């Protein structure tokens, strides 16, 4: 495999040749930590509808958005420059706005939402359910690739630990990178970071800008492949697999077209349920170090540690 390329994997292979699909995904996860899925089951019309909802929300008056500022529950609105994903290298915060919606069933129903989003709650919930179904099949492919024994859960080892009806940190995030040039002198719009969860699904629309750090050294662009979803491994899965799967840093940089075009993206961050211990993985391919085995860390603890480092909460 070319190390500097993000592989493109055909999702229809999951049904026809689960083993081959699992091997392709494993190769990508052990290498660059990112892959595109084409021919996935989420209808483009539904994705487009989510982008329309997102645009309507970001167009609403600032007072309405700021009434829902993000708090320690990791839900709500993040204003321009509020999040600083790369606290070491960025002078200013990220040049973007975002809104975190809950992606666990209970919270989808009860999260307090601004009017524009509240009116679309059913559609948002349906999209969260649909994308979660796709995540579950990716997690099944992981279990096949990692040869999890039947008596340890087999194919359902990861899915049973990503129950949308149980407590967990999964987030459905809409993002807007407003048009305009780099007023602060930063080249980067969203600082270099790795994601926190197990897997992230990313939908990009029209305007590129995402870059991925191949081999932990070289920045390569992650172009938009129409109709695809970009999938990446997060920190919890890297930790859980003893480093076998790579949680790769990525960032969004300014491109000339950003001067006159808004950029929108949607990220679904799937997390293991809060109570899941990340230092136990019954796979013959994974060897956890003694040190790692000694760290009894749950997914919930892992997430909260990371969040405290990157946000400046206004409460
Ligand atoms: O907007 C993008 O393309 C990437 C966003 C991202 O990496 C994140 O929110 O974690
Ligand atoms: Fe990210």
From TrEMBL:
InterPro entries linked to this entry: DIOX_N, IPNS-like_FE2OG_OXY, IPNS-like_sf, Iron_ascorbate_oxido_reductase, Oxoglu/Fe-dep_dioxygenase_dom
**Do you know which PROSITE patterns this protein is assigned to?**
FE2OG_OXY
Which Pfam families does this chain map to?
2OG-FeII_Oxy, DIOX_N
Molecular function GO terms recorded: metal ion binding; oxidoreductase activity
- The residues covered by the Fe2OG dioxygenase domain are 167-272
What keywords does the record list, in alphabetical order? Iron, Metal-binding, Oxidoreductase
Q: Which family does it belong to?
A: Belongs to the iron/ascorbate-dependent oxidoreductase family.
Name assigned to this protein: Fe2OG dioxygenase domain-containing protein
């Amino acid at each position: 495999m070319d190390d500097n390329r993000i592989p493109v994997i055909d999702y229809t292979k999951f049904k026809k040749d689960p083993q081959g699909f699992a091997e392709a995904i494993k190769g990508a996860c052990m290498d660059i930590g990112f892959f595109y899925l084409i021919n996935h089951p989420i209808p483009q019309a539904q994705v487009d509808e989510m982008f329309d909802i997102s645009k309507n929300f970001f167009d609403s008056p600032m007072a309405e958005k700021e009434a829902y500022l993000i708090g320690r529950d990791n839900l709500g609105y993040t204003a321009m420059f509020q999040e600083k994903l790369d606290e070491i290298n960025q002078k200013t915060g990220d040049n973007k706005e975002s809104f975190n919606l809950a992606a666990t069933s209970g919270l989808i129903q009860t999260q307090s939402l601004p009017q524009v989003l509240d009116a679309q709650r059913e559609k948002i919930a349906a999209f969260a359910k649909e994308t979660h179904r796709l995540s579950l099949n990716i997690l099944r492919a992981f279990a096949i690739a990692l040869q999890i024994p039947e008596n340890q859960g087999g194919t359902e080892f990861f899915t049973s630990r990503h129950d949308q009806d149980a407590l967990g940190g999964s987030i459905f995030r809409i993002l807007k990178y407003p048009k305009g040039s780099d007023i602060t002198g930063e080249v980067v719009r969203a600082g270099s970071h790795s994601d926190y969860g197990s897997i992230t699904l990313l939908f990009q629309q029209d305007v590129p800008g995402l870059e991925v750090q191949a081999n932990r050294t070289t920045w390569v662009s992650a172009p938009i492949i129409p109709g695809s979803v970009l999938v990446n491994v997060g920190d919890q899965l890297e930790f859980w697999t003893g480093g076998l799967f790579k949680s790769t840093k990525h960032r969004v940089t300014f491109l000339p077209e950003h001067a006159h075009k808004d950029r929108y993206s949607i990220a679904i961050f799937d997390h293991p349920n809060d109570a899941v211990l990340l230092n136990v993985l019954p796979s013959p391919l994974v060897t956890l170090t003694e040190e790692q085995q000694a760290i009894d860390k749950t997914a919930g603890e892992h997430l909260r540690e990371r969040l405290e480092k990157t946000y400046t909460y206004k409460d």
